[in-house]
């Protein structure tokens, strides 16, 4: 009982509780604002902003007008778009009174409004509207501070969008990087079987069609590990048609991890590197064979995928450069895959590469079985 009473006392006074309420309301508004300034995000966040300010009404608008309103005085919505546009053009906070907020309701608590600009990367994108019976210097400062915080959240949303666009652009570049040589070589291998083994040529052509259909699809940032490995198998069938017994592949996959969501095209580039480097060393071996193994294991809350070759290996410093995005490195998409894994799951889930000159290469991919925002 004594411990319980001490904890009650340690919560602090009213100012501490007010600070907690403010932080709580800010945290509730933040997720919607991180999606950008839209009608949907404004509707979901504006009530929390009104609670944060403790005013009878609040609204959010873009440069064209009001997007959402919460609280009393909803009949004033049509009177504010002109002021919002002025604020968006000038970048200055404005106070509107009863000359603008014309009202025949004697009991209306919204007699004045503060309209504060929202700025993202030096661009005026909209305004925060705070409605109250009357304005004070303290309320104006509070409105400007909340508008500044909202602007920060919208700027983070823009950064998230830019990062997503960059990742999408890198995936397109990765497709372009993989495709030309592989397409040319695959079609050449298929052509070599047209006369000698037409049935096999037909099968390979169908595999090639399925592989390219998957690689060039335009929907979905994520796929299942099963789909990714199915595409890898098609790729390897086409490569084995070219190299025959010179390429030996071992595939071991735990069934439990097949439904796990992974970034699209995160395994195939690693396999292509392994094939290239494994076969590069095969000419120097007594048996002339390049070996590649792919394993996918179930490890508690994670899925671990390993792609290993017995090829020439690489200088670790060059691998670090490739992971940093150096495009001069002869490593298809290594930096791209690493960046997308970190973006999806956090920095703890970047690629791990074990290699040394003459010792082959193992690339390890760890992905959580479940992660917020990651779904097929």
UniProtKB/TrEMBL annotation:
Which Pfam families does its entry note? HATPase_c, His_kinase
Q: Which domain of life is it from?
A: Bacteria
For this protein, the parts annotated as crossing the membrane are none
| Segments forming domain Signal transduction histidine kinase internal region | 169-247
Q: Does the keyword Kinase apply?
A: yes
A GO molecular function assigned to this protein is:
kinase activity
Task: Give yes or no: UniProt keyword Kinase.
Answer: yes
Provide this UniProt record's keywords sorted from A to Z: Kinase, Transferase
**Start and end of every Histidine kinase/HSP90-like ATPase domain?**
266-369
SUPFAM superfamilies reported in the protein's UniProt record: ATPase domain of HSP90 chaperone/DNA topoisomerase II/histidine kinase, GAF domain-like
Which InterPro entries does this one have? Answer: Bact_2-comp_sensor_kinase, HATPase_C_sf, HATPase_dom, Sig_transdc_His_kin_internal
Q: What is this protein called?
A: Histidine kinase
């Amino acid at each position: 009982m004594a411990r319980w009473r001490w904890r009650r006392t340690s919560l602090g006074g009213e100012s501490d509780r007010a600070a907690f309420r403010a932080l709580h309301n800010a945290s509730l508004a933040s997720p919607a604002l991180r999606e950008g300034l839209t009608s949907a995000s404004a509707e979901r966040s504006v009530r929390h902003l009104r609670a944060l300010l403790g005013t009878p009404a609040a609204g959010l608008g873009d440069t064209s007008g009001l997007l959402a309103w919460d609280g009393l005085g909803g009949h004033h919505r049509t009177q504010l778009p002109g002021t919002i546009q002025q604020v968006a053009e000038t970048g200055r906070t404005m106070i509107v009174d009863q000359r603008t907020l014309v009202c025949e309701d004697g009991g209306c608590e919204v007699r004045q409004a503060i309209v504060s600009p929202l700025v993202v990367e030096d661009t005026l994108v909209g305004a925060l509207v705070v409605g109250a019976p009357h304005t004070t210097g303290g309320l104006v400062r509070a409105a400007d501070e909340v508008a500044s915080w909202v602007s920060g959240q919208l700027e983070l949303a823009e950064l998230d969008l830019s990062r997503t666009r960059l990742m999408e652009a890198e995936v397109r570049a990765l497709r372009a990087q993989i495709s030309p040589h592989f397409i040319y070589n695959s079609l050449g291998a298929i052509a070599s079987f047209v006369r000698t083994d037409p049935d096999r040529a037909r099968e390979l052509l169908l595999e090639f069609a399925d592989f390219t259909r998957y690689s060039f699809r335009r929907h979905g940032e994520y796929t299942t590990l099963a789909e990714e490995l199915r595409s890898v198998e098609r790729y390897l069938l086409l490569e084995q048609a070219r190299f025959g017994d010179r390429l030996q592949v071992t595939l071991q996959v735990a069934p439990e991890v097949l439904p796990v969501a992974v970034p699209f095209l995160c395994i195939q580039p690693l396999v292509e590197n392994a094939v290239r480097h494994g076969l590069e060393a095969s000419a120097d071996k007594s048996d002339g064979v390049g070996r590649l193994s792919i394993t996918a294991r179930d490890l508690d809350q994670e899925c671990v995928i390993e792609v290993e070759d017995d090829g020439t290996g690489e200088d670790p410093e060059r691998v670090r450069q490739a992971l940093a995005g150096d495009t001069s490195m002869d490593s298809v998409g290594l930096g791209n895959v690493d960046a997308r894994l970190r973006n999806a799951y956090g920095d703890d889930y970047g690629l791990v590469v074990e290699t040394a000159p003459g010792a082959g290469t193992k690339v390890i991919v760890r992905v959580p079985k479940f992660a917020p925002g990651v779904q097929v």
